[in-house]
Amino acid sequence: xxxxxxxxxCPEMAVSMDxxxxxxxxxxxxxxxxxxxVGGALVRQPKQLDEALATVRMLEEKGxxxxxxxxxxxxxxxxxxxxxxxxxxxxxxxxxxxxxRILAECYGRSGKDWGKSFSCYYSGNxxxxxxxxxxxxxxxxxxxxxxxxxxxxxxAPIDVVSRAQRRVVDVAHHPQFSGQPQGxxxxxxxxxxxxxxxxxxxxxxxxPARAYEVYPSTGAMVRGGLVRTxxxxxxxxxxxAMDQVVPQPQAAQMPAPQPIAQQPVAPQxxxxxxxxxxxxxxxxxERNAPVALPAQAAPAQAMPVQNIPAGDEAFVF
Length: 317
Known about the structure:
Blueprint lengths: L16 H11 L7 E3 L11 H13 L4 E3 L4 E2 L11 H4 L2 H18 L4 H10 L4 H4 L2 H14 L34 H14 L1 H5 L16 H28 L72
Antiparallel strand pairs: 1-2, 2-3
Helix pairs in contact: 1-7, 4-5, 5-7, 8-10
């Protein structure tokens, strides 16, 4: 058995060893003494040259069709490609050189199609190799080699795991830092609260232009918020003081409406009519005040006393 094909350097190869090694993997599993019987199979593969020579002579005497060596060159192609003895057919380089020439001819006939070339190498035509799965086995060997590729020093490469691409965002507003210690900023806030408690309790609206500021740390964010709150409170206090200092224009004061004093109207005597007493005329505001009328000219007469029988007083009005 071959330990590996890396040490082999056969001259005059018609097809690169990079391709031929996959043909060898499928044909003989890298056993230089392998024998393939068409329409049958050996009980086991030979492990030495003597076993291989004895077996092929037996197969030849019985009329079997068979292939030999690393690349499984068919018995009817041995003499055509320079393998004039079975001993030479089991040698590594002569066997590979003959096989590479056969594959190169198939490659030219197939129009440089590797799938058809492998089928031609296997069966002599461009279709049987596909039906029997031979072409698929060769391509599978190529895929396995690519999947287990190692570096020159024997170390296997590390796979790459894909991850989401980072999204780079341009920061329009850079973090603003006042440069003052946190204690100074807190002192300013407390001073503003002492001057104007009403403004200190008012919620400071967020400036839309600064709504997306990026701070390097939590401390910077806190300091920035304190400074903005203090500035807003200070501006409000200053505006309130200005309102108190600057006099506001006042409208001309109109005199309040005063009630008109009514002159007392002296009662005017009216001439008497039909022997009645005079009519007294008074002001409307004195309409409800009692007024003593002058005595009538005629003397008051006493009501006559009625004589009411006893027991009838209740019915007299």
